[in-house]
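User: Okay, second chain of the day. Same drill as before: sequence in, structure tokens out.
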Amino acid sequence: MTPATGPRVVSLLPSATELLGAIPAIDLLVGRSHECDFPPGIDDRPVLTRARTTGATPAEIDASVRALLQAHPDSSGALYDVDETHLVRLRPDVILTQDLCRVCSIDLPAVQAMARRLDPPPGILPLDPRRLEDVFDDLLRVGQAVGRERDAERAMVALRARYWEAIDFVNPYIDGPRVVMLEWTDPLFVGGHWTPGMIAAAGARDPLGVPGGPSRCITPEELIAARPDRLIIAPCGVDLDGTHDAFAALARRPWFGELPAARPGGVALVDGRQHFSRPGPRLVDAFEWLVAWINDRPDRLPAGFPVAYPAPDHAPDPAPDRDRTPAASIHPRTRSRAEGPAACAGGSGGAADPGVRHPACSRTPADPPPPCG
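Assistant: Same drill. Structure tokens below.
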């Protein structure tokens, strides 16, 4: 790594690392989380965090997260270990983190507590995007925090230009298809925050998501009643191979065939580790893909976008064992969506424990079904 002129930056959030790379200011990065794997060329930066969650299937991951949080209800570090000794040696000037979910990655109070133990204490920039527009603003905030304001502004203008160029291919005068994005499959979670707004801007209708609101745990009955014409399956933090496995299990459920989307071309599998679950620059890639798919414009597909279109009536067998990292250690943010399963009355997560608060849902399991995540 070539020494850089500027603040020494530690990123504990993958989307923040991608924002730093888009400025570009990745030369300032001196340390990262275990989830930070993009842009290319950062493998030489030391990894400072480790996930405690285990499991290979959505249900197993759910059980792992629930057990850890029940064992440590007041501990913000229940799901992650941080190498504080190495952090001290790195002497960061700025730490990039998040304030959206204490399960997605290490949470803000834990980072603040660590920062107070450093001398001198670094500045902390927490990111809390709710909409795609917030991601554009976060790019400017990161640029300001690292002293690269003008570069960040240029990068933001370029991203917004791509967004508006894609919108030119959306017909605003027709009702588009009903589109649901599942960001977890056992139990079912529909995407929230920036995802419903992106679906609407791309020319479709999201019958279950709330623009800017949290993701939501739903029952199969709710999904059937929504009658989605198209279904996006992008489990949070899971790669495309793992998404094929999740779809195979989902498609074998007896109710799946009742969905209008359960037809050839009605289901899209997207690499949730790279897109949709990370509120960074590549959300614009995801939006370009949405516009191309929803509006039947294959000429607008972004090059190399990680997507597959299976035939639901011929569900694939679970992918054979490959040389790949188990889902639980790829991106424990998936567990933020898996952690509230029992909070969904009638869901597949088992009986709810009214004494346990699910941070992913910001409510107790005994509360009514509105937004979870």
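The two ends are 37 Å apart (CA to CA).

User: Thanks, on to the next one.
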